[in-house]
Design brief:
With 257 residues, the protein is mainly α. The protein has one domain. Helices cover 76% and strands 0% of the residues. The relative contact order is 0.09.
Length: 257
């Protein structure tokens, strides 16, 4: 039932006959296939440069003592399995514009000519926000977070001995999660554009949105500590506040039009 309701959104308003349900499923299947192929090609490219990627991921450790920043590989196959995991996350970043395009092509097949011309710039903005979130996390937040946990462990008299798997899991989930958090304005503006939410609704439900944002931040963050939760949730809340005012501007402009 949920799929049928969603597929109604894909119908062309001027069409007199509804598209068969199985045709919607076929479109969905080909969308998934195209997204999987794009992601696979990006993964292969990233895997070929796994040495450069590993050095890039370990740069936040450069601020630590050289004797203590060596990561430990505990598994025999860690060099391959972790390289594949790293290639997967890097492939998401590399193929993100194509993934967005294929998804938009499926969800919005009934766009007008003007809206289709705006689709590529919208995807470019969305990718810029995603990449900006990843870079901001990698350049600013991630090194400070790594240094904090290192110093915190040292203050308890412990010698940090991080494994490769734990470190890369933390870095990739943290950076990708931060990049996805920066997609919040795009999601909200899309909902406003299609009339699913409004400025009044967003302003009225702000307290609930704050709670949901920090719940989402708790799910995305790779560690349960309060510092990482705030570091992830605070920017998401600021982005949500900016979305409220952008929605107000869009509503005012629509009323004037």
């Amino acid at each position: 039932m949920a799929l049928r309701n969603f597929f109604k959104f894909r119908e062309i308003p001027e069409s007199e006959t509804a598209k068969p349900f199985l045709e919607h499923l076929e479109d969905l299947r080909w969308t998934v296939v195209k997204m999987a192929i794009a992601l696979f090609i990006a993964m292969v490219l990233c895997f070929l440069f796994r040495a450069q990627l590993t050095h890039l991921m370990q740069r936040p450790l450069d601020q630590l003592d050289a004797k203590l920043r060596t990561l430990q590989a505990l598994g025999i196959t860690d060099s391959i399995t972790i390289s594949f995991q790293l290639a997967f996350y890097a492939g998401i970043v590399l193929s993100f514009p194509l993934l967005l395009y294929f998804l938009a092509e499926f969800v919005l097949p009934a766009l007008t000519a003007v809206e289709k011309r705006l689709l590529l710039p919208a995807i470019a903005v969305s990718f810029a926000l995603f990449l900006g979130g990843v870079i901001a996390c990698y350049m600013w937040l991630l090194p400070k977070t790594v240094l904090f946990f290192f110093n915190d462990a040292a203050s308890l008299g412990w010698v940090p001995a991080w494994t490769v798997r734990e470190y890369y899991s933390f870095v990739t989930r943290f950076t990708i999660g931060f990049g996805l958090a920066f997609e919040l304005p795009v999601v909200v503006l899309a909902l406003v554009r299609f009339g699913l939410v409004s400025y009044d609704l967003m302003a009225r439900t702000r307290p609930y949105a704050v709670v949901l944002i920090f719940i989402l931040a708790a799910i995305i963050t790779p560690t349960p500590d309060i510092l990482t939760l705030i570091a992830m949730g605070a920017p998401m809340y600021l982005l949500y506040e900016s979305c409220i005012w952008i929605a107000w501007f869009m509503q005012r402009r629509g009323e004037k039009a």
